[in-house]
UniProtKB/TrEMBL annotation:
Belongs to the rtf2 family. Residues 187-231 are annotated as: Disordered. It holds the Pfam family Rtf2. One of its GO terms (cellular component) is nucleus. Interacts with DDI2; probably also interacts with DDI1. It comes from Panthera leo (Lion). InterPro entries: Rtf2 (IPR006735), Rtf2_RING-finger (IPR027799). This is Replication termination factor 2. GO terms for biological process: DNA replication termination. Replication termination factor which is a component of the elongating replisome. Required for ATR pathway signaling upon DNA damage and has a positive activity during DNA replication. Might function to facilitate fork pausing at replication fork barriers like the rDNA. May be globally required to stimulate ATR signaling after the fork stalls or encounters a lesion. Interacts with nascent DNA.
Amino acid sequence: MGCDGGTIPKRHELVKGPKKVEKVDKDAELVAQWNYCTLSQEILRRPIVACELGRLYNKDAVIEFLLDKSSEKALGKATSHIKSIKNVTELRLSDNPAWEGDKGNTKGDKHDDLQRARFICPVVGLEMNGRHRFCFLRCCGCVFSERALKEIKAEVCHTCGAAFQEDDVIVLNGTKEDVETLKGRMEERRQKAKLGKNPQAHQKLRQGSPKKPASILERRKPAQLPKVQRQ
């Protein structure tokens, strides 16, 4: 079981590729999620919007998708929940002063630039590159890190001062569990909105049919026998 000369190969010599490939794939996935539009696959550029599931889009790509339903650019599950422009929120992002873009790239290799974040948390200064959890508020569109939300607990936005509730907090590019939670909240909001537009249907769901209980009660009444007069 040896090689020529009776040498036995070491384990690290036999298994070289998988870990490196896995790391490269993970880095590439982070770059794609935080730097490219989920819909058009083009580089993110302002105005940037996010959906209720925390995915990032170019606003013009969303508008084009909504206007052209036959567009082949649609990625099925990635956009099936976007029915109108109201289903996305325009983000208020804070630029990273340390990000130079193509200006600092002299070798033509953009890998390092993509690893740096274009935007940062305006509260604690963390870079929005996928290594830290970020979120935005549906009520105002401001974006900041989850750490800022936890460390500086408040009922108003850290950036603009707008009041918000827990339901307004949307995690950007979250885990599968995050997406499932956000999906449940989204469906609940839309169901409430439908019931709000049709108050009669909402009243019927709450009250039910008033005749059915009455008929049940009538069936349960004992039959009354006619009185017999004594002679």
